[in-house]
Amino acid sequence: MRLPGLVGSTWVLFRKDLLVEWRSRSRVNALVFFSLATLLLFSFALGPDTALLRRNAGGYLWLALLLASVLALGESFRVERENAALEGLRLIPVDARAIFLSKGLANAVLLTALGVLLVPVLVALFDVRVVLSWGRLLTLVGLGCLAIAAPGTLYGAIASHARARDVLLPLLLFPILIPALVAAAKGTTLVFEGDPMDQLPSWISLLGSFDLLYWGLGVVLFPRVVEE
Amino acid sequence: MAAMLQRLWNSGPVRAVRAFAAHPLVQRSFVVLTLAVFAYAAWVGLTQAPPDREMGDVQRIMYAHVPMVQMMLLAGTITFVCSVLYLFRASWKTDALAEASAELALVFGAIGTTLGSIWGRPTWGVYWAWDPRLTTVAILLVALAGYLALRRFVDDPERRAVWAAVTGIVIAVDVPIIYFSVKWWKSLHQVQSSPRTVDPQMVHALRWNITAFFLVFIVFLVVRYRIALAARVREVTVPDAAPSRTTQAVAS
Amino acid sequence: MNALRIVLAAVGEGRIQGGWEYVKAAYAICWTGLSLYAVSLWVRSRRSEAPK
């Protein structure tokens, strides 16, 4: 039997991860409700000035996604640890890069879906309107979630084997993600408020460069992280 | 390349210098020299250098703030280089140096930033400004704290070394990105008080202070490195076992 | 000429008067911080040498 190449392995593992998520829908549901709760908390902590909430809605969306991502990433690796599944994969042998790519992509897809789901909530809670095109919004959400997923998967693998893993993952991840957070939040605000000075392309390119860099770095470094 | 450096390190004259540097009397004298230079530099900065035309005597904080931040950058660079080096050639010494340097970067950076904040109050009117340099340093300090936390929370020495190296590289790569993103984020630029044409007496004072703080940095680095290396030796059950990728002995 | 002299006299008058409290606070923090760290290094160094 010929072993699948990198792309083949990635695809198989990607489907596996999505299937695992689908089969444990309760976990995904919990994630959705957690994000909703977070957005509610923001509106209570920072409201009730509706104009202020509307202006900052882009920021709130990304904060909620960031907090949810920590849970999602933690779960993603807990699944692997539970039955020594990751070690099993490595023994087949599966290219570690395929594990990184598939897990990262699965996490990114999950977070993007979450982000898209939250937009109507923003419209309802914060009186937001999508002034620019939905296509651009989707691009932003997608790129931003890819940005979270790459270092998130890398650090998720590390943190899952360390003590105090629930604290360690956000502590490691958040400083690294600040540029992506800034770009995504600013871009989203522009999509909601309008972009008279055409700043959106620069934010999108910053996000895109961040993604390229961190996915590249992740592919190179992840094998070292999981090797014995 | 590595073999050539190894040969150089073990050559006659270099060995003589190393033996000299390892002598306890020499090391103690170095510490005394450091203290002396530090005291002299402080005296020069506080009394001999002239007050600034606009800022007055408050400007003297620069003689402590600038060297501290420069040492933070130096320490950060050392950690980054050691992180990369470790992934190519695993060695407990490289790992120990990375750990020592990271801690120094955090200490010097935290104190240096505090000094800058105090300097900012009378000169800019605020303790903090979201300008690119300041914000990048703040993020870097948090990232370093995360790096040190990672080291504390991983028990297996080999994995700790690899993961710390990976984290170190990610942090270092992120710093320029953070800087540029904050630059774009801040629509207005705060005026930074960097000396344009600096009075030669100020340059003199600054040079002495940079030298002084550099010597302090070296002393701290050597001590901290030894502590880290000793900890590795204790952890690894067989004293001269090395990380599996190399045949180097720990004590050589 | 008198006007020029007045203007020239004003140069450097943006000087912050005194400000030594800031300098003292800064240097105190710097020296205290470094000393505390040095002490912590010394204690840890002793502790790491002790069992041998």
Structure in a nutshell:
The complex is a heterotrimer of chains A (228), B (252) and C (52). With 228 residues, chain A is an all-alpha fold.
Secondary structure: elements and pairs:
The complex is a heterotrimer of chains A (228), B (252) and C (52).
Chain A: H1 6-23, H2 25-46, H3 50-82, H4 85-91, H5 96-126, H6 134-160, H7 165-193, H8 200-226
Helix pairs in contact in A: 1-5, 2-3, 2-5, 3-5, 3-6, 3-7, 5-6, 5-8, 6-7, 6-8, 7-8
Chain B: H1 2-9, H2 12-22, H3 24-48, H4 62-88, H5 92-124, H6 132-153, H7 157-185, H8 200-235
Helix pairs in contact in B: 3-8, 4-5, 4-7, 4-8, 5-6, 5-8, 6-7
Chain C: H1 2-10, H2 20-49
Written description of the protein model:
The complex is a heterotrimer of chains A (228), B (252) and C (52). By secondary structure, chain A is mainly alpha-helical. Chain A is built from eight helices and no strands. Chain A has one domain (6-226). The mean pLDDT of chain A is 89. With 252 residues, chain B is mainly alpha-helical. Chain B has a domain at 63-235. Chain B is built from eight helices and no strands. In chain B, helix 4 (62-88) packs antiparallel against helix 5. Chain C has 52 residues and is an all-alpha fold. Helix content of chain C is 75%, strand content 0%. Chain C has helices at residues 2-10, 20-49. Chain C starts with a helix and ends with a helix. The chains are: A mainly alpha (228), B mainly alpha (252), C mainly alpha (52). At the A-B interface, helix 6, helix 7 and helix 8 of A face helix 6 and helix 7 of B.
Q: What is the strand tally of chain A?
A: 0
- Biggest beta-sheet profile of chain A: none
Number of helices of chain A: 8
Secondary structure class of chain A reads: mainly alpha
Rg of chain C over CA atoms, rounded to whole Å, is 24 Å
Beta-strand content of chain A: under 5%
Compute the number of strand runs of chain C. 0
Mean pLDDT of chain C: 79
Which properties best describe this structure?
heterotrimer, B: 252 residues, mainly alpha, 76% helix, disordered C terminus, C: mainly alpha
